[in-house]
Design a protein that fits this description.
Elements lengths: L1 H19 L8 H8 L3 H12 L3 H19 L4 H7 L5 H12 L3 H6 L31 E8 L2 E8 L5 H8 L7 H9 L19 E13 L5 E10 L12 E5 L2 E8 L4 H18 L7 E3 L6 E7 L3 E10 L1
Antiparallel strand pairs: 1-6, 2-4, 2-5, 3-4, 3-8, 6-9, 7-9, 8-9
């Protein structure tokens, strides 16, 4: 079954590549199934089984996600955007856009409110693979350095009981409008994220991070601090656009942090090994040697970045001794 997760992931990546290149001729179930050597019916059935969505519906919503960012970020005409993403007319594009987002392209360009984009599916996700199969050691070292992070905003949802990424989303899925697909889709539509590397490529998840805030209501972590687990995006301090009703926007003051960073790695084979290496580096780090101590006073935030193609990174708040 894991092999089929990989196959569907390959199809999903091919879909995004074709959309980016406006290659509609290659973007058909027939062409994609031929690459894998299976019938269209079989590929369609496996796609729905693994992704939870029909192939044609996923394709339409991903095209609309790409088109939305052009509506938001460019001055291209709606008819050009419609044709670029395979719609037969401006009217057909406008109808599909409104059906998906509850707003017309014209209204959205004038007032780009957060909407739920169809995020890229990740059926072959390191969080869903048995951890015992990912023990290969990485030769990359963990870099440790101090930074001062300027004042910014943090838009997020939070959970006072979860422990870890998978448990977090399991609990959030029980709250209306706070499931992973909805929250990631909303965050993906927001422009100006400080950690966003995706731009117009609709690199779903780019700029989205886990975080932990010291709050009295939070779960007591391994070092005795009450932490609320969060998921969200960092935004410029002057961000003033509409905030989704199920999210919280807070100001994070300028502060000093220590960063534990591991470079790119193969998450299929090295995820657990990298995690162990970073955890060990954090546990053994001598803060006082550099004139600091870990600062988990009320309201301080610890950020966690997990992007295997770029890095694994913890950013912990510190203060001078």
């Amino acid at each position: 079954m894991q092999d089929w997760h990989k196959q569907i992931q390959n199809i999903i990546e091919e879909i995004d590549l074709c959309i980016k290149n406006h290659n509609d001729e290659a973007l058909t179930l027939k062409n994609l199934s031929q690459k894998l050597g299976y019938s269209e019916f079989y590929i369609s059935r496996k796609f729905k089984e693994i992704s939870g969505i029909q192939f044609r519906d996923y394709l339409r919503y991903r095209k609309l996600a790409f088109a939305l960012k052009e509506v938001r970020d460019t001055e291209a005409s709606f008819i050009d955007i419609a044709f670029n993403y395979g719609f037969s007319s401006h009217e057909a594009f406008s109808r599909a856009f409104k059906e998906a987002y509850g707003i017309t392209p014209k209204e959205y360009r004038q007032h780009p409110v957060p909407v739920v984009l169809r995020t890229i599916i990740k059926p072959f996700d390191c969080y869903l693979i048995e951890s015992g199969k990912m023990r290969e050691e990485s030769t990359e070292k963990v870099k440790v350095y101090f930074v001062t992070i300027p004042t910014h905003k943090f838009l997020h949802i939070k959970n006072y009981e979860s422990i870890g990424y998978w448990d977090f989303w399991q609990k959030q899925s029980l709250i209306l409008g706070q499931d992973c697909e909805t929250i990631c889709g909303l965050l993906d539509s927001i422009k100006g994220k400080l950690d966003d590397e995706g731009g117009n490529d609709v690199n779903s998840g780019s700029g989205q991070i886990m975080a932990f805030i010291n709050e009295p209501e939070g779960r007591i972590c391994s070092w005795g601090i009450p932490l609320a687990e969060c998921y969200g995006v960092r935004l410029p301090i002057d961000y003033e656009r509409e905030v989704p009703q199920q999210m919280i926007l807070i100001d994070i003051p300028e502060g000093e942090y220590v960063v534990f960073e591991h470079g790119p790695f193969d998450y299929e084979d090295q995820n657990c090994g990298v995690e162990e290496k970073v955890e060990k580096a954090m546990a053994s780090f001598n803060y006082s040697k550099y004139g600091y101590e870990l600062d988990m006073s009320y309201g301080r935030v610890m950020y966690f970045f997990h992007e295997p193609e770029r890095y694994w990174k913890y950013i912990r708040p510190v203060k001078k001794l």
